[in-house]
C-alpha cells in the first residue's frame, strides 16, 4: 500500500515516510512495515501473520503507476491523497488531487456499467474524473482501443492518458480519430503527470482516407459473415459497385467520425444506397449508424448526423457522384 497512518493520525505517503517511525494500516489499524530502498519502490506492508485486513491487493504495474503519478504531482506542490476513502468509505479513488480531481488507474478492461457508475458517483461528490488505461496496442500512428478504453477519451480535446509499464511513465495520445473497428489514429508521447491539467489547443482534425487495401480488407470481413443480407454487400450489389468504386466514394474519415462507432464504409455506402433509391431520410440513417459513448459527454445525435451527412454530401459533390447530387 502507498499510504499509512502515523502516531499523530496523519496520512503519510510511503515515499515520504521515515524509517524508525511507527505506522498503522488505514483499514485494520494494525502495524505495517515501511519497505524502502534503492531497489525497492517505497511501500507499506502488513506483517506476515496479519491476514484479516480487507485492504485490496493490486498488481505491481498498478502500484507503480500510482507511485509515479502521485510522486510527480506532489513534487509540483499539489495536495495528494492516495487511496483515500470517500463517501462514507464506499469509494476509494486511486489518487485525489487538491480534493477536486480524481485519477483512476484502470489497467484492465471493466464493464461499461461499472465504468459509468464509478465515474458518476465521483462526479456527484464534486470530483472531476480522469481515467488512465493500460498502454494500448499500437502500430505506427494507429492505436487499438476496446469499448472501455475509447470511452475514456476526452472527446472535447481528443486526448487519452495511458500508463506505459515499459517506460514507467504516462503516455498521452492526442489528435485522436476513429478510422474503423477498434482502430484509431493519433499522436503519442511520454508525458509528466502534471500534463493531466494542461488543456490542448483544439485544431481542425485531419481528413483521412482509407486506402484501397483497407477498404478491401473491410469488404473481406463482410464477406466472411456469409449472409446475403449483410448491409454493406447488399448495398454494393444493388448499386452495382465494384470494390474499387467503393474505395473511391467511401472510406472518408470526417472530423465527426470520432463520435461514430460504425465503420465509415458501412454508413457511407448506406447513404449512397438511400440516395440511389431516392428515399434518403435522417430517420432511416440513424437506424444504420451507431454513435460512440464517452464519459465526458453525450453528443447530440441529431446535430452529429446532420454534420456528417452535410460533409459527406459535399465530398460526393466534389467527386461528381451524380446520384447523390440529384438526391441532395
From TrEMBL:
Q: Which residues form the Competence protein CoiA nuclease-like domain?
A: 58-191
> What InterPro entries does UniProt report for this protein, alphabetically?
CoiA-like_N (IPR057253), CoiA_nuc (IPR010330)
Question: Which residues fall in a coiled-coil region?
Answer: none
Q: Where is the Competence protein CoiA-like N-terminal domain?
A: 20-50
User: What Pfam families has UniProt attached to this entry?
Assistant: CoiA_N, CoiA_nuc
User: What is this protein identified as?
Assistant: Competence protein CoiA family protein
Tell me which species this is from: Staphylococcus marylandisciuri
